[in-house]
Write a structure and sequence with these properties.
Layout: E1 3-8, E2 13-18, E3 24-30, H1 40-53, E4 60-65, H2 71-84, E5 89-94, H3 95-103, E6 109-114, E7 118-123, E8 129-133, H4 136-139, H5 145-162, H6 166-175, H7 184-189, H8 195-199, H9 202-208, H10 214-236, E9 244-247, H11 254-260, H12 271-282
Parallel strand pairs: 1-4, 4-5, 6-9
Antiparallel strand pairs: 1-2, 2-3, 6-7, 7-8
């Protein structure tokens, strides 16, 4: 049997094809496949391009997708992959779940994910999953890249009004390709700025650390992320010694990890491999 793992997100889609004896056959990426943020047509095209690049058709496919957290999302991805690979056995999961399996495995533990957004997952001893966060940039995702970027703009506007932190203000405006930080509200309203461009400011903020206001912004972000991890740990009734890992550009940044103050291990496998490991666990060769 051959196994295909797919990690589908808002910026790219990773494909990993393995043989029964765990030998890598192919690995590559295509465009975004989050059907909510990128649109159904773009998501379908990214999946189509990936399947057409496979050197052979897989027997089992496990896809973890941003946008598969609800029934309509699961149905969308199942329909896409069923049309492209009609003979394959399919498993559809969320991208957060396969990231957990890749990082820690099918065992109790905690995974903190913080890239553009933020979410924490925990697996109980009975195999059930607990989540906290991940509610999107409008109502949640505290401590993630977009939250940090939004706070950076807010602080930059305040600093502009007060005539302070000129270097920080100029850096934020320049990263957004604005002549002046005061253009930011109108640029957002006119869709010249989006979630991705604002989230990109997280790297500017970390570059200014430990100067203010970067120090305050990152300290607050770390507090939010630590709170997510501690919340799922309590809800899952896990000991402090349980496995704990992180994923995402923000959570993996050394400054954020130091400020969060928890002991994190490096993920054992990337998310696409996590999808394959889950498929191997669920679907055995006949």
């Amino acid at each position: 049997m051959t196994y295909l793992g797919i990690d589908g997100g808002g910026s790219k889609t990773a494909f990993l094809l393995e043989s029964e004896d765990e030998q890598e056959i192919a690995r590559f990426e295509t465009g975004p496949s989050n059907w909510l943020s990128s649109g159904p047509a773009t998501a379908r095209e990214s999946l189509t391009q990936g399947v057409h690049r496979l050197p052979k058709a897989p027997d089992v496919v496990c896809g973890g997708f941003a946008g598969a957290g609800r029934a309509e999302g699961i149905e969308f991805y199942r329909n896409c992959l069923s049309e492209l690979l009609p003979r394959a056995q399919l498993l559809i999961e969320t991208d957060a779940f396969i990231t957990y399996i890749g990082a820690i495995g099918p065992v109790p533990g905690i995974l903190l994910i913080a890239g553009t957004g933020s979410i924490a997952l925990a697996r109980r001893a009975d195999g059930t999953m607990v989540r906290a966060g991940g509610w999107g940039p409008t109502f949640g995702d505290e401590g993630g890249g977009f939250w940090i970027g939004r706070e950076a703009i807010r602080h930059a506007l305040r600093a502009h009004d007060a005539g302070k932190s000129a270097e920080f203000v100029a850096s934020i405006a320049g990263a957004l390709k604005l002549r002046n930080i005061t253009e930011a509200p109108a640029a957002w309203k006119d869709a010249l700025l989006d979630v991705r461009s604002v989230a990109g400011l997280a790297s500017i903020v970390t570059a200014h650390y430990p100067a203010e206001p970067a120090d305050q912004i990152l300290a607050e972000a770390a507090g939010h992320l630590r709170s997510l991890a501690e919340l799922v740990q309590r809800r899952a009734d896990l000991p402090e010694s349980c496995p704990m890992s992180v994923s995402g550009s923000v959570a993996n940044h050394p400054i954020l990890q130091k400020l969060i103050g928890l002991r994190f291990s490096h993920p054992a496998n990337p998310p696409a491999r996590g999808a394959i490991l889950w498929a191997r666990d669920r679907i055995k060769p006949s």
